[in-house]
Design a protein that fits this description.
Blueprint lengths: L19 E7 L6 E7 L7 H5 L2 H4 L6 E8 L20 E2 L1 E6 L8 E7 L8 E8 L5 E7 L52 E7 L4 E16 L4 E9 L3 E2 L8 E8 H13 L6 E17 H9 L20 E14 L3 H9 L16 H4 L2
Parallel strand pairs: 1-15
Antiparallel strand pairs: 1-2, 2-6, 3-4, 3-7, 5-6, 7-8, 9-13, 10-11, 10-12, 10-14, 14-15
Amino acid sequence: MSFTSCNNKLEVFSPGEESVSVYGILNPNEPVQYIRINKVYLTDGDAMVAGQDNGQINYGAGELTVTLQRFINSTSTTPTVTTKNNIAKKEIILTETVVTTQSGNFNTNQRLWQTTDRLYNSGDYRLTIKNNSTGAVFTAQTSIIDSVKPFGTQQPMPFLYIPGNPSAYPMHGNYPANPISTDRPKYVNYDIPTANYFIKFRTVPNARLYGVVMRFHYIDSLIGGGANHEFVDYNFTTAKSSDLTGGTMLEDFKFLGNTFYENLAREVSKKPVPNLKNRRSFYMEFIVQAGSENLSDFLQINAPSNSIAQDKPSYSNINGGVGIFASRSTSIVTKDMWNDFIDRIACHSSTNPLLFCNSSGVPSVSVCN
């Protein structure tokens, strides 16, 4: 009787549950946090055409209430102080703004939710999205990621590792006016083309993914007067920490001296200057980003497949929706360059044609053999 009384009728065209698409990466080092929220839509026509329809992909003004709350640990149910502003809050209510994006598969008008409240660099942040019309609620949570420390009491290991000399790490612009040989460890020096160089630092808690950009700053002096401040990047392949506890020495970012000069020549050549007089090496900048484990999982699962089989799993940590709510942090160290390094840039076979001056300000064409 119980089997025969069951209703097994399938309503093919029955309405589906409401869902959202979310992309939000919190960064406590940035002055503004942005979260993009779109509708998840169904269409009986061309999906690409529907994606260009502002009304099908975007929520209307005032349709959503979006909030952030901070918790001391992931299992806590009691929010704590949420911001580092002068006025303590236990809840941040994000405001709406509309931005114009590059053309693509979706409408170029995108509604974002933002806040200028400063976030703490510890704890967990919970995102809550409420549809004020339907009452539907969507949530997500992530651990906040602190920035990698170049020096200090918590993480005394600098980016440029010089054992036993923790005082030798001034930032760009704070170096001795007249350096002597004993000041050499305070400067960046990659003057040996055949040597292997390392950028080392200790990991931070809850961060799985790490990326490093080595940025070279230089000055273009122009014929007839004037100068332009320019920079080019050396991008390293991302690396993963073996654990989430923090404090582990990460040594994955290494490079050959020759590779640095070859990259410098290639990237500077992409910025031709028709009225160039000469160039001057300025300083080095090291940008280290740390990403949470959920961000690492999202990027890995959504990476392009190299297999002929294109069936891939999907990843989302949005309760009731799709997308990613994660965190990352940014740490920056700036370093001046030792004279031997500046001289090598002027005379290395790869960079010599670019008219870099040596450490005395003499153009390479006058000082290099």
